[in-house]
Amino acid sequence: MSRPPAAPETTAADPVLTAERAHLALAAACLGQMRTAAGAVTDAGVDAWASERLGAARAERLAALAHDPGVPPFFGRTDAEAESFHVGRRHVRDAAGDAVVIDWRAPMSRPFYQASAADPQGLVRRRRFGFAGGELTGYEDEVLAAGEDSLGDSALLRAEIERPRSGPMRDIVATIQPDQDDIVRAPLTESICVQGAPGTGKTAVGLHRAAYLLYTHGEQLARTGVLVVGPNRAFLRYIEQVLPALGEVEVDQATVADLTARVTVRADDDPAVAVLKGDPRMAEVLRRALWGGISKPVDGVQVTLAGRRYRISPERLKRFVDDLRRAGTSSVDDQQVLHYAAGRERLAMSLAEYARRLKEAGGGSPSDAETRRAARSAEVRAFCDAVWPAVDAAGLVCGLLSDGERLARAARGVLTEEEQALLRWSAPPRSVRAARWTPADAVLVDEVAGMLERTAGYGHVVVDEAQDLSPMQCRAVARRLAAGSLTVLGDLAQATSPWSAADWSQTLTGLGRPDTTVRPLTRGYRVPGEVLDFANRLLPRIAPGLPAATAVRREPGSLQLRPVALLAGPLAEVVGELAATEGSTGVVCADAAVADVVGLLRTAGLDVAALSDDGSEPTRVSVVPATLVKGLEFDHVVVVEPAAIVAAEPRGLHRLYVVLTRAVSSLVVLHAGDLPDLLQPPAPSQAQA
Ligand SMILES: Nc1ncnc2c1ncn2[C@@H]1O[C@H](COP(=O)(O)OP(=O)(O)OP(=O)(O)O)[C@@H](O)[C@H]1O
Predict the structure, then answer these.
(1) pTM of this prediction?
(2) How many beta carbons lie within 10 A of that of residue 351, not counting itself?
(3) Is 4 marked as binding a ligand?
(4) How far is the CA of 496 from the centre of ligand 1 (A)?
(5) I want to staple 289 with a disulfide (CB 3.0 to 4.6 A). Which of 38, 86, 333, 410 is the partner?
């Protein structure tokens, strides 16, 4: 279904339109001048490093000013009694430095998003603009002073929501709604968890929050950085353009697998094993395995310092080791904790400094360099290697999973014997490199690496589809958070991993922010009401207690249930019809059926390709494995045999809920078998009753 961008009742001769077009031309010209000025700045700094930094800063600035002719410099305007502002994606100034457009993130722009007739926030009028291909084609006024507001029912908002989808996700900066804006503009110090039904704009809100925080706390976050964590490469590819379009190019985007890629993953675990490896008790097992490798000194050590030898007794050595081990294992504050590798270095230094004190007591005065040399001496190194051995993270996990006795020592009282047996590799690998690591193992290795050395942390982390993270994955994300704050986005009804919890507390605890407030979003922007009502029938079983989303619009005819005798013919026919329309089509089926569905559609002469997790670009008609569709959306969705999607995995009904909520315009459900009971049409007698 295609609709032109809204052009409310305005004509070319409308003086308002004429004046606004002139302002648009002015803004475009000023932006051009700003770009020229940024391009003219020379990169010559005092030295090569400074020149490079200047060059990088200039490239960033140019990227931020990049002008896409399809993206107009402003999209709205606020009129107060004394002044009016045009609101756009970034500040635009004229040659005199006066504002031509103000950035949507500036405090002055807030009333554009928040003002209502009941609370005009100083505005007399709000104006929204409609564009087609960069041309200003119309506008919509709400005279707040006269009690008018669109209450989320603006024609321009509707046009934006219904526009055909093609290519990657776009920003929603022109139409952010008040409840979304509250989350976007929450302070940097506040961690937030958004529990939002499908299509309520969680991903959009999280990305706009990142852009808002980078604007508002640029200097602080430029140092510490912002990270966006998404579920898979296909999803990251889908969202990767949103932040650059908002002028933010310096945000890292990664999956948990990317963050924990310290070993090469070559295998998958059975669900029961994956659940256990994701259990927070594994952190305790690993902690014991690592710190339990430190042994008690039995002999004294001779330390050579500035030509003399000093003997340190086993009792004193034991005290050094105990004190350092305590600093590594009993600190409540993660920021203060002593990491294992640093502990090893400190132990060596403790010995050298003790020798120095002995020398000083005898009247000597060794230099720092001599003390450091003593810490690096062969005797001290040999002592540390024996008592506080160097550890390789992958080696430790490999040893633990290969050696039943070692595992039992670390897991005693934490895991049952049956659980230990589940973890043990039946055939230990010949070497650490040869191990058939799974994604859950990679997270364990990362946990150990995080105990060995402090992981660099970001100032803010946005975690999307967070309902699917295991507690151990949450810890991996938390390690990247340092002292910063979090935006956690997710939907418990879309929780498809075998370890998914029924409430947010486990996830938020794992992420290290148990006190985070959970805020709901319930207005669905993506899916038409008819389709959403259908999918919501699954809610009582998959997420009892969660409020159902309400759709912002209804589209009669958007849902078609088609029972068929054989799938092949009707599938090719339906997809053929949709392929001829504007926008994207996703044909979603159980993963195991993807190859057959692709073959069948190609045999029918249709140009389709399977969506894969390598981040490659989706085609206009994609065959999508059900496990890869999370977070994505298509104009038209064809679901092939829902019962097979449900049967494919333990949380298959949750998966089906995800699949049924991806359509912007239409959903066709093709089924040769029965529909899952909750989705079956009421029997005729019930229907009449
Ligand atoms: N205020 C808005 N104005 C216009 N479009 C919006 C708005 N909010 C959300 N949308 C659109 O609705 C769609 C769904 O948004 P998004 O993907 O962020 O939702 P979500 O809650 O993350 O969904 P899901 O959980 O189903 O993946 C997107 O196309 C987004 O652009």
Answers:
(1) 0.89
(2) 25
(3) no
(4) 20
(5) 410
Index of the ligand 1 atom closest to the CA of residue 662: 26
Residue among 536, 633, 656, 661 to mutate when testing ligand 1 (max atoms within 8 A of CB): 633
What average pLDDT does range 594-603 have in this prediction? 96
What superfamily would CATH give domain 179-255+453-524? P-loop containing nucleotide triphosphate hydrolases (3.40.50.300)
Ligand 1 site, residue 207, Cβ cutoff 6 A: no
Q: Residue 196, annotated ligand binder?
A: yes
* Arch. (CATH architecture) of 529-679: 3-Layer(aba) Sandwich (3.40)
Domain ranges of the chain: 15-163, 179-255+453-524, 294-387, 529-679
203 Cβ below 6 A of ligand 1: yes
pLDDT, tens only, 275-329: 999 999 999 999 999 999 999 999 999 999 988 999 999 999 999 999 999 988 8
pLDDT computed for residue 64 by the predictor: 59
What's the mean pLDDT when you consider all of the chain? Answer: 89
Mean pLDDT of 461-467: 96
Are 570 and 670 in contact, with CB atoms under 8 Å apart? yes
The CA distance from 404 to 421, in Å, is 8
Residue 198 counted as an annotated binding residue: yes
Helix ranges restricted to H, 362-490: 368-375, 378-387, 393-402, 404-411, 417-423, 439-452, 471-479
Query: Residue 48: what pLDDT?
Result: 61
Using a 6 Å cutoff on CB, does residue 525 contact ligand 1? yes
Cα separation, 600 vs 566, in Å, equals: 12
* Residue 94 contacts residue 100 (beta carbons within 8 Å): yes
Q: Would 179-255+453-524 and 529-679 be classified into the same CATH topology?
A: yes
Q: Which residue has the higher pLDDT, 86 or 235?
A: 86
Please give the residue that has the higher pLDDT: either 340 or 161.
Answer: 340
Testing ligand 1's pocket by substitution, the residue of 202, 525, 550 carrying the most ligand atoms inside 8 A of its CB is: 525
Residue 453 has pLDDT above 80, yes or no: yes
Q: Which three-class secondary structure state does DSSP give residue 523?
A: strand
